[in-house]
Amino acid sequence: MIRIGVIGCGYWGPNLIRNFHDNDRSAVAMVCDLDPAKLARATRFAPTAQTTTDVATMLTSDIDAVVIATPVSSHYELALAALEAGKHVLIEKPMAATSVQCARLIEEATRRGLVLMVDHTFVYTGAVRKIRELVQNGDLGQVYYYDSVRVNLGLFQHDVDVLWDLAVHDLSIIEYVLGRHPVAVSASGVSHVTGSPANLAFLTLFFDDETVAHVNANWLAPVKIRRTLIGGSKKMIVYDDLEPSEKIKIYDKGITVAEQDEEIYKMLIGYRVGDMWAPNLDSVEALRRETDHFLDCIENRQRPETDGAMGQRVVEILEAASLSMRERGRPVALSERTGK
Amino acid sequence: MIRIGVIGCGYWGPNLIRNFHDNDRSAVAMVCDLDPAKLARATRFAPTAQTTTDVATMLTSDIDAVVIATPVSSHYELALAALEAGKHVLIEKPMAATSVQCARLIEEATRRGLVLMVDHTFVYTGAVRKIRELVQNGDLGQVYYYDSVRVNLGLFQHDVDVLWDLAVHDLSIIEYVLGRHPVAVSASGVSHVTGSPANLAFLTLFFDDETVAHVNANWLAPVKIRRTLIGGSKKMIVYDDLEPSEKIKIYDKGITVAEQDEEIYKMLIGYRVGDMWAPNLDSVEALRRETDHFLDCIENRQRPETDGAMGQRVVEILEAASLSMRERGRPVALSERTGK
Amino acid sequence: MIRIGVIGCGYWGPNLIRNFHDNDRSAVAMVCDLDPAKLARATRFAPTAQTTTDVATMLTSDIDAVVIATPVSSHYELALAALEAGKHVLIEKPMAATSVQCARLIEEATRRGLVLMVDHTFVYTGAVRKIRELVQNGDLGQVYYYDSVRVNLGLFQHDVDVLWDLAVHDLSIIEYVLGRHPVAVSASGVSHVTGSPANLAFLTLFFDDETVAHVNANWLAPVKIRRTLIGGSKKMIVYDDLEPSEKIKIYDKGITVAEQDEEIYKMLIGYRVGDMWAPNLDSVEALRRETDHFLDCIENRQRPETDGAMGQRVVEILEAASLSMRERGRPVALSERTGK
Amino acid sequence: MIRIGVIGCGYWGPNLIRNFHDNDRSAVAMVCDLDPAKLARATRFAPTAQTTTDVATMLTSDIDAVVIATPVSSHYELALAALEAGKHVLIEKPMAATSVQCARLIEEATRRGLVLMVDHTFVYTGAVRKIRELVQNGDLGQVYYYDSVRVNLGLFQHDVDVLWDLAVHDLSIIEYVLGRHPVAVSASGVSHVTGSPANLAFLTLFFDDETVAHVNANWLAPVKIRRTLIGGSKKMIVYDDLEPSEKIKIYDKGITVAEQDEEIYKMLIGYRVGDMWAPNLDSVEALRRETDHFLDCIENRQRPETDGAMGQRVVEILEAASLSMRERGRPVALSERTGK
């Protein structure tokens, strides 16, 4: 039985508590939050958990792993303390406020042989895993683009902008599905509340070929949209995360390009329209798969699918996006930011 | 009875022919195209029209007005010849290949007292007119953003990229609805066919305050989407042009911002969720309203709602976007391009 | 060139005129309506057509075939006169006001060797033809049910109720797709306008096994719905005629039934959920296919797919439904009505 | 603190357990099921609950109220025993297997002054309460019809048919919203599994005027649909329970009827198309409102909104429907069945 401590009982923490409590291989031994009312509420359905408002109490207890579900600005300090106390760590996304902090955490976990996992939940959904399968086995052909709209009337975060809050999901999906890293970004965005981070932003990722990715993220939209178009040379996908049953639709559609003999630079473009197909998806709850994977990694000292390295790459892209956004879309090379 | 000559029997020309033929105040007197088969087809339902493959024949005839529905690259030459022949002119969008050409056409029309109108059809839809009314009478409050997705598996144009073909609609709508002009743009886009213009592009328009506009245009999408979100400080709109009956939905949703006494820079953000309302829209066909307006302008020597000046401003933005796209989103000031 | 005369320029007539005018093998030679304004309007796009307000003038002319697009109550008299004048006949659905009238028309056409076709347009759509193919080749397994909702805010007919106006479409589809005939019906419906036929009705068709069909028809609905569920032992279909591109979705879903050894009458039911598939449909316009078929039948003296016999069977079911509706759903055997 | 005992840990029981556990005014003191695995599972998140496989143990304990979430066939016996043991009772719908049993339970509860409530959950949703408000305050005008489609691939029940399982929801909504009772029913339905109750059924309810209600219920549908159209003389409603945010849309649409002077029996029907409006709904969870109401009724000896009388009327309609279904839709008067 792996003993889990959870820090943070805000929006996401209770979901993690519920899942680790519900898993036969783990017990939620302790829960920490500064607000006693939230603590009481969060443990109402997790009767085995002790509560504390003091992180040190948790870190000196006999728990095996710490789950961090607090605001981003506190991730680094809490995760570092947990690793130094010899605990495995699962951190809510994004991993930390800077990529330098990410690197430091990876180093500490590696040195101590501890599991360091980032809670990029979408990677554990049946939909995203199916998309990865379709891309990796060549069904889509060459991937042309990833184009996501992720908007709703959502909680305005105080410490991070809308890209760090929403586009972060797409960045982890892109990393997982494509297995490739962008070389530059251009981002534009605005804040409509004085003193608050950007609540609306558009992010383009450039790769070293014609592949392009785009994310439209918005906290101030009238409706909720979670839809991604993925275009390939052979097939195209519509991934709508709000569809209850057919989240992925695969279209056998596209263009055909034929060179014309005499005018080699003028292409003859044809259009192909075929069937649509919605595969039945694995219905395991993403958080269930994720908690199982975290427990597996601890038991077998495995590297998680959403490890620190992925977490760091995502933060690097977000840092470059922030830089670009301040200059109205100026392209920022990933190497520019990281000095590579 | 105003006698109309139509040049170009491709995709759009036949719609214009049908409308001018169906209007009691006009007759389609002549139709011109290089392809006799297209000519025969286009006039099957317009029995009064003579046909010709020679533009000069049309321009020396007794028609009153010329409607130009040819590829963009030919707009300038044809429109100039028509104006010089003393004919009123309606040009399909975009108005011309460069803003310099637009300026020259405006000058010629003004000098001769002729009507010069650009076929920005969306301006004549019941939906866009209702949105303008809602914005102009203050129902939306301050407009925060205009965010449009306009994608489908569409015809790859040979002479213009996807922004000139699709985003052009949004630019005319923005001009008409907001009555304001952007100060800078950032655009990114790619071509997935060697030697072909960009088939996928993202365009951000910056204004001199926090207003922002964004257009996602794509010829290579698996599904057709025509959806625009418009956010305001009081209300927000979803405009879905593919909805058969409720194209506009107005959401009484948003945020409230309260300053906190002691920390003046820290805002307290509240969320407001109220009713949704879909106004019944005027059902006049847009092309019908547009042809009527063109005929009115000719009869009364009026300035059209979509006049040359609007056509020119749209082309200026497209030119700036093309410049930005070549440099992966580098922000381009509108003044930079036009030398203002 | 087959010369066509069209009687009736109401809602549907102009569509038929447009199609026969547009077909290279036919010409619309004459159009008849009592209202000169409608006549002028209907022939605006069909310049070859003479107009008349007198049916006799048309029937004594040299046309080859008559298309009847008038109210139901006049179908019989007009069609009989046309047949007696030696013209082939295409009648808008439903074929006639009584099945006895249908029988008389069939007899007359047969005797004279003329084509008698009923305009059950849905039979000529790509969607319905694909459904028939899926049913006939066994993909669906045993067909369990056909369940259609066909409602909108529609024109209240004066001479027929909503089943004769809307459910008639489903009856022709059922005839065509299943190739089987019901043995009894139960119908209920009400009128919400004094003196007007039922504007809302529900119709159940019983077959000689467990197959069942149901139609929900309504002229007074707030939204337009055209959706049919078809359940089979192997697969199930959702047919939504308002979907622009994916009208048919085929679900690999259902139940499995296993007998349990000891309790032979207690079945163990399992549930099967697989992929969904939307086949690309033939995009030929239904009216185009139908007019071509009518011309083929005339040229080759073929029996139409929607011949008089199908038209008569549809009217027989409608007669039985009317009887049942007057008695709040009392089941009416088809043989009861027809005396078979 | 009201002490609750829950009998039945199948599909619905755990939801009731969670709600009574989460309510500050009640405690789940005991849970009963024959299956120890289900008991363990159901109480994992309700740590205060004792478990038992013996109903008598629960009924002789010091609990105040019994919640019955077992198959229908056991409702009567369990509820009667609970009432005789002096416990308040909440029974899952439908109330019992026969209306005679319902009457007996009402009598027993009345005699002992105990609360007897039926778990018609939909009555406690924000959507249904808003519809009732719109109907009762006259916004809809005269109600013309209630037309519901409630289908999905659902669990085939062994002891009741699909009307008793699904249409029961509509019957409680109709009772609550209209406050009127039907006078006759016609039902048709079939079973596609030998020896199993009807899995597909259509039910029409007749009232003493032109109001009509219809329910289409199906366990073997390829997709889940929960949509009800409600037509009134002034406005019409679309209630789609699967819509995440706009469950109710109110259409200002309909017909106008004008008598014509000379032909008093011939009505002139006009069509009215206005705005659509989706009111923001109370977001209290239905089960939360229901458990609160049950606790209120116990504390104040109030009569519940979904009391035994409503439960009995619903069962009476279901009995009449079963009778009609056996005879292919023969109309059954409610008085015929109940001998009133």
UniProtKB/TrEMBL annotation, chains A, B, C, D:
A molecular function (GO) term: nucleotide binding
Pfam families reported for this sequence: GFO_IDH_MocA (PF01408), GFO_IDH_MocA_C (PF02894)
Domain Gfo/Idh/MocA-like oxidoreductase C-terminal: 132-334
Highest taxon of source: Bacteria
Record-annotated membrane-spanning stretches: none
Cited InterPro entries: Gfo/Idh/MocA-like_OxRdtase_C (IPR004104), Gfo/Idh/MocA-like_OxRdtase_N (IPR000683), Gfo/Idh/MocA_Oxidoreductases (IPR051450), NAD(P)-bd_dom_sf (IPR036291)
Annotated Gfo/Idh/MocA-like oxidoreductase N-terminal domain residues: 2-120
Name this protein carries in UniProt: Gfo/Idh/MocA family oxidoreductase
Organism from which the protein derives: Magnetospirillum aberrantis SpK
